[in-house]
Design brief:
A five-stranded antiparallel sheet has the order 3-2-1-4-5, covered by helices on one side. It is an alpha+beta fold and about 120 residues long. Helix 1 (about 5-20) packs across helix 2 (about 25-40). It has two helices and five strands; from the N terminus they run ααβββββ. The longest helix is centred in the first third of the chain and has 16 residues, at about 5-20.
Length: about 120
């Protein structure tokens, strides 16, 4: 299963869990799932570099670990900039510090990004 499938699965999992009374994803997991869903449909593919990754200690049912990730985003025709974001990373689609990646950037807020693939 590819990384995009994992993100979609995480979003669907969060929605499914919140529909159950007394059991559900945390507010943070719901926010991340909603952000992923928006960026999948309207985000702009942009090259970036992972400067650092620090585990928050949070995990989810599909097996991901949440990280605070600092990236240098390199938009075409614009100046590179640094952004920090939280994202769940899965063993089937690992990322690490020092890697070049592709992020999706929110058209309305360039500081809202998620990693969506290898660079």
């Amino acid at each position: 299963m590819g990384f995009m499938d994992k993100v979609k699965q995480a979003a669907e999992s969060a929605q499914a869990q919140t529909s159950k009374i007394g059991v559900g994803a945390s507010g943070n997991q719901i926010d991340l799932a909603n952000r992923a869903q928006k960026l999948m449909s309207t985000g702009v593919d942009t090259p970036a570099h992972i400067d650092s990754m620090t585990s928050t200690g949070n995990t989810d049912k599909p097996g991901g670990t949440e990280y605070t990730i600092t990236l240098t985003v390199k938009p075409a025709g614009g100046d590179a900039y640094e952004v920090t974001t939280n994202q769940y990373i899965y063993p089937s689609a690992p990322f690490s510090e020092g890697e070049d990646v592709t992020v999706k950037v929110d058209r309305d807020d360039p500081n809202t990004v998620m990693i969506f693939g290898k660079g």
